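User: Predict the structure for this protein chain, please.
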Amino acid sequence: MASSSDFVQYVADQCGGAGDIVAKKMFGDYGIYCDGKIFGLICDDRFYLKPTETVRPLLRVIDMLPPYEGAKPYFYITDVDDRDYLSLLVRETCKSLPEPKPKKRR
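Assistant: Here is the predicted structure, written as structure tokens:
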């Protein structure tokens, strides 16, 4: 089951306090980016956040699940209705992630 565009847009809007949020379709589901860094996935209308040690203590519930078969576990975030909470999680996650690699010119 693929994610609905309404759910994807809702999660993107809820994370908006963290920066410029963009969701990109990937293999039937979505990668979600903040200021060019991929910080999570939206698969089957569920939001998954890349696991980082800086975010772990901020989580209300620590639930680690793979977003798709064969994937490494991510933080599964069920509370997508609290905009301030999601924005905080995204900001802190992105601080721990490396800068995106520059795109090669073709």
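The chain has one domain: 5-96.
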